[in-house]
Design a protein that fits this description.
By secondary structure, the protein is α/β, with parallel strands linked by helices. The strands form 3 sheets. The protein has a 6-stranded mixed beta sheet with strand order 5-6-7-3-8-9, sandwiched between helices. Helix 6 links the parallel strand 6 and strand 7. Helix 3 runs parallel beside helix 5 and helix 4 runs antiparallel to helix 5. It is elongated and about 70 Å long.
Length: about 290
């Protein structure tokens, strides 16, 4: 279990994270999202112990990692831009992590084979995605319980992404906790149980992903007229409204009356109810949707 209590972090006059709280149970795959500069990477660095907060504390299984050596070995952090030396091979990378973790070499070899990698490959001579795959192999072979993976899908081709997601699903039953950041919200939607949107230093939205998506309804309405449609005292909370010609798109929050009570039947030809994606959810609550 991970428990974050009132974490604050600043860089000079810039207050990046403000009284952040979080509680995650074992077996969770958590998607951490936000615009560039929101503090996602800073939050992962705080969890890993690379950075220290000004106030608050972080507990792994009710213990602070900095004061518990065994707990430190349970935390694996993969940054968005991991560094390596010029002549470092995948084998060298493995040997480095074996110094810090009770490394499972058999599992490491199995994941390398899954990604069609070999230990002899030089990290300087393979693609960005292949490097990422090598670090993913180290993450799982480290036997760490808490995997903090920043922009983990970056550079992975579609096949590698599917293989990686299957690895996470297969290991989520091992009481692991995965915390992922990614600009590919489609990938997070496929795999995450829970999510948090960081905005202005705190969690703007947080919860179980499927539950939160179910709170929004998306409708596409074919109007009879191309003139901009206006609602008179709508009895619902319209988060997003966009009209392209005779096509009107609405995203509505919460329980609402039948659309027939919101939009006059004489004004449209047809209404379709559509599913809403995590990306649309993010854009609406981040303030990037038109209204």
């Amino acid at each position: 279990m991970i428990t974050v209590n009132n974490i604050n972090k600043s860089f000079g006059d810039l207050h990046v994270l403000k009284d952040i709280n979080l509680s995650l149970n074992n077996g969770t795959i958590f998607g951490l999202v936000g615009i560039n500069g929101a503090g996602k990477s800073t939050f992962l660095r705080l969890l890993s112990g690379v950075l220290l907060p000004e106030s608050g504390n972080i507990l792994f299984d009710e213990k602070e990692t900095l004061n518990d050596e065994a707990n430190r070995m349970n935390v694996f952090y993969l940054s968005d831009q991991p560094t390596h030396t010029l002549y470092m091979t995948i084998k060298d990378l493995k040997e480095l992590y074996k110094v810090f973790y009770p490394f499972d070499d058999e599992q490491f070899q199995a994941i390398l084979a899954l990604f069609n990698l070999t230990e002899k490959m030089s990290l300087s001579h393979i693609s960005k995605g292949m490097k990422r795959q090598a670090y993913i192999a180290c993450a799982f072979a480290s036997k760490a319980k808490y995997l903090l993976l920043d922009e983990v899908f970056d550079g992975l081709d579609p096949v590698a992404r599917l293989k990686f997601k299957k690895l996470m699903i297969d290991h989520s039953s091992d009481d692991k906790i995965f915390i992922l950041t990614s600009h590919s919200l489609r990938e997070l939607e496929d795999i995450c149980d829970e999510f948090g949107i960081i905005d202005e230093g705190h969690f703007k939205k947080f919860g179980h992903l499927s539950d939160e998506l179910s709170k929004l309804m998306k409708y596409q309405i074919i109007l009879k007229d191309k003139l901009p449609y206006t609602f008179s005292n709508p009895a619902c909370h319209i988060l997003h409204q966009q009209q392209d010609g005779r096509v009107l798109t609405l995203i509505i929050e919460g329980i609402h009356p039948p659309l027939e009570e919101i939009i006059d039947q004489k004004d449209y030809h047809a209404i379709d109810e559509l599913s809403i994606s995590f990306e649309e959810y993010f854009i609406v609550y981040q303030g990037g949707a038109s209204k």
